[in-house]
Amino acid sequence: MTSAEIRQSFLDFFKSKQHAIVPSSSLMPTAPNLLFTNAGMNQFVPYFLGDQTAPWKRVADTQKCIRAGGKHNDLEDVGFDTYHHTMFEMLGNWSFGDYFKRESLTWGWELLTKVWGIPPKRLFATVYSPDKAKGDPSDFDQEAYDIWAKIFKDAGLDPAVHIVNGNKKDNFWMMGDTGPCGPCSEIHFNLLESDDEAAGRANVNSSSPRCIEIWNHVFIQFNANADGTFAPLAAKHVDTGMGFERVAGIHATTNGFRDFAAEPSNYNADVFKPTFDKLTELSGKIYTKSVPTKRDSLTAQEQIDIAFRVLADHARCVSCAIADGILPGNEGRNYVIRRILRRAIMYGQKNLGLKTGDFASLVAPVIESLGNVFPELKTQRVMVEKAIRAEEESFGSTLGRGLDLFWQGATLLERAEVDTGPSIQVGRTYVEIGEAIMRDGKLVRIISGEFAFLLSDTYGFPLDMTQVLAVERGIEVDAKGFERFMEEQRNRGRAARKTDVIVASTEGEAVAAATKFVGYQIDATHATHSKLVDVVKTEKDAYLVFDQTPFYAEMGGQVGDTGHALINGAKVDILDTIKDKSGRHLH
Ligand code: SER
């Protein structure tokens, strides 16, 4: 089967079990507690909670998911292993108050072993077993255990070998800190050359690339509240998710689940081939599938192979995110996309010698492999290419100089004696690069927050990119120190913006009347009716001036009030309140 045939076969199987096949939802999440859509079930949350009635009892789909920030974050592993991605497709099937554990697990077994022909001996199931000492919720999942025990027995296998218990960390699935959740049962695939069952079992949940989880069956029974409690839901639901690239990669590596001699890799799946071919064409370099066993002292070929994987992964992630309207930017999810994009540009230039515009040219092979499944990639192609190209141009102009500075700094730091900290001249000032210290009898070199901040502020290096570069040289980064510098910069920015608006306000209204402050006279709702008398605009912000206000303005070390105003029925958030020289409150 090709990757496309595997995907289709999953959907056809569930169609034959009366599931409606629905499209993937956008990567822009609807739930407020998520950075990105991170699981197939996200779009169905209102049905699980009973807030809305599902139009179907059973559905299946393939869902674009990003796990790069928030509760589920795989970014650090991408490129360094062969089975984690920033963006991946999750094949899933759902029951909304309809079938439950028996059907879910039995059909799962049927698809894997009967339809796809995976050798049963190589499959292991995990079952929820709470660690009560740690306060894990709910009880041992006897029902799932019994269903699995029968399945394995019927297949002539020993349940005691093929069922593995797991506590909340591995077998209780939550979308975020709040929301629908429940015990889960994962199916793990032994990819060792030998199908020895004891060895397979020993590798379950051990982070071995030779035994990986391929399918999670979650039994949604609770809603996690913000206070850490779990409330039972009115109905019980099924939410399963299969790692599409994992299954496609295993299928490609093992000649259709038959030959387990070779090292498995998601990147062997044909869904990555157009991008890998393009990377070879652009760089003149060859991908050899090497996977490093450590993060520093990498060989030249290991660096090339990591970069192939990183770029192929990141090109898909960034293309799909932008096609769904999440553009690179400076805040929140937009900043995550910018970081991923810059990381890809950096790896492309440093490890593969790519030039500006090369990364944007990976959009075409991404569309070639995914455009039929996610048609928005085709319709948004021009916008996606433009946004990537713009970032390559703006970041590309500082990346080379930033890398030079980083390498100079790292080399000086490597030469530093214990308990010394070299500095480097930047313009007219000296910046402390970091220090070399002894920790637990080992020499440790740490890049200072100041140097990391310089790389970020002047050269656009996100902190995690500096960390990636540092790790390659066996150096740490003072992330807390970096945050202190960032916070100082934010404070300077806030102060400058206030000066701007006060100047703008005073210039515009030389004879303006002071705002009447009614904050001490109003009732417990803290609301008042006021007339909007002026709007003061600066480049970045707009400030509202009312004839009277209950909002206290920043003064004498006390911060300004925050809240909201209703203007002709529209809600406007007020993020700060300050006062100008005429005594007008600027909201
Ligand atoms: N929500 C579960 C997961 O993401 C199953 O789909 O693993």
Topology:
Elements: H1 3-15, E1 20-21, H2 45-49, E2 58-66, E3 87-95, H3 101-115, E4 123-128, H4 142-154, H5 159-162, E5 163-166, H6 168-171, E6 172-174, E7 179-190, H7 197-202, E8 211-224, E9 230-243, H8 244-253, H9 273-283, H10 300-323, H11 332-352, H12 363-370, H13 376-379, H14 381-415, E10 423-426, E11 429-432, E12 434-439, E13 442-447, H15 449-459, H16 463-472, E14 476-477, H17 479-508, E15 516-517, E16 532-537, E17 542-546, E18 548-549, E19 563-567, E20 570-574, E21 578-579, E22 585-586
Parallel strand pairs: 1-2, 4-5, 13-14, 15-18
Antiparallel strand pairs: 2-3, 3-9, 4-7, 6-7, 7-8, 8-9, 10-11, 12-13, 16-17, 19-20, 21-22
Serine binds at residues 39-41, 92, 173, 216, 218, 239-241.
- CATH superfamily annotation of the largest domain: Bira Bifunctional Protein, Domain 2
The CATH architecture of the largest domain can be named as 2-Layer Sandwich
The hetero compounds bound to this protein are: serine
If you compute it from the alpha carbons, what radius of gyration comes out, rounded to the nearest whole angstrom?
28 Å
- Oligomerization status of the protein chains: single chain
Total helices: the number is: 17
Fold-level CATH name of the largest domain: BirA Bifunctional Protein, domain 2
Number of folding domains? 4
Please describe the biggest sheet, giving its number of strands, its sense, and whether it closes into a barrel: 9 strands, mixed
Describe the structure in your own words.
This protein is an alpha+beta fold and 587 residues long. The protein starts with a helix and ends with a strand. The mean pLDDT is 94. The protein has four domains: 3-264, BirA Bifunctional Protein, domain 2; 268-406, no CATH class; 409-485, no CATH class; 512-586, Elongation Factor Tu (Ef-tu), domain 3 (Beta Barrel), CATH 2.40.30. The longest helix has 35 residues, at 381-415. It contains 17 helices and 22 strands. Strand 16 and strand 17 form a beta hairpin. Strands 1, 2, 3, 4, 5, 6, 7, 8 and 9 form a nine-stranded mixed sheet that branches. Bound molecules: serine. Residues 39-41, 92, 173, 216, 218, 239-241 line the site of serine.
